[in-house]
Design goal:
seven-stranded mixed beta sheet; globular; 15 strands; alpha/beta; binds zinc ion; Metallo-beta-lactamase, Chain A
Length: about 260
């Protein structure tokens, strides 16, 4: 079973032009799982050759604009570009807190009549039971600590590889438990280390807090994601035995 992470949006709510708003894609046997749909990532998906019929599910962490504003345009773009003759053919997993907001998003977006997504609202945010299950993966969700309610996702593949996607959050103990011994922790790092006060106040993490979380959770690979305007000297380095990656948009990580 071949597992790939495709980084289609490595930036956060603010970053340089080279980093798109957030989207993480996990590819398994030519099927795709999508995490967050920031503005513009619909075009990144098209550029990457991701066909709608191969998308198993989309998962949203929370409803801040940088994580969901790509959805209405993805609906209209995919509907027309691929001649989709479908309604509700792609499942969209959203925490139940946001039932009304997701509806408003599509109404406001003006493309309600062509919505290709089927909303699936889930209520388990403590990681105890999967919110999604198929022949390749189980997905769990855990409530994080952000400025609004938000979840992290834990993806467990059938060959027992574990990938965590934090979404937006400040460091917290639930995240450490959730990501313990993971193969890959994709951790938000919105601020540089000298802006910790601002990070805490806005429910985000700094680069060094993300690294600290990775070490505490004993993960093998830490991916710094949802980046702000930090400049990194190295795109790959080690902290003790943990490998740290700072991917650019469109980079791919193959899980061996
Ligand atoms: Zn946010």
């Amino acid at each position: 079973m071949k597992v790939k992470l495709i980084f289609l949006g490595t930036g956060g709510s603010f970053s340089y032009y080279n980093r798109n708003y957030p989207m993480l894609v996990i590819e398994i046997n030519d099927f795709y799982y999508i995490f967050d749909v920031g503005p513009g990532t619909d075009k990144a998906l098209i550029r990457s050759g991701v066909k709608p019929s191969r998308i198993k599910a989309i998962f949203i962490t929370h409803i801040h604009s940088d994580h969901i504003f790509g959805l209405p345009l993805m609906a209209i773009n995919f509907y027309n570009l691929y001649n989709l003759n479908c309604r509700e053919c792609i499942n969209l997993y959203v925490p139940k807190w946001y039932i009304e907001d997701i509806d408003t998003l599509f109404t406001f977006g003006g493309h309600r009549e062509k919505v290709i997504f089927k909303n699936v609202f889930f209520t388990n945010y403590d990681g105890s039971t999967p919110i999604y299950h198929d022949e390749y993966i189980d997905v769990y969700s855990m409530e994080m600590q952000h400025s609004i309610k938000s979840v992290a996702y834990r993806i467990v593949t059938k060959n027992n590889r574990i990938i965590i996607y934090t979404g937006d959050t400040r460091p917290n103990n639930r995240l450490l438990t959730f990501s313990e011994n993971a193969d890959i922790l994709v951790h938000e790092a919105t601020f540089p280390e000298d802006r910790e006060e601002q990070a805490i106040r806005t429910g985000h993490s700094t680069t060094s807090q993300a690294i600290e979380d990775g070490l505490k959770a004993k993960v093998k690979i830490l991916v710094l994601y949802h980046l702000g305007a930090q400049i990194f000297k190295n795109k790959e380095f080690n902290v003790n035995s943990m490998k740290v990656l700072v991917p650019d948009d469109y980079e791919v990580l193959v899980l061996h």
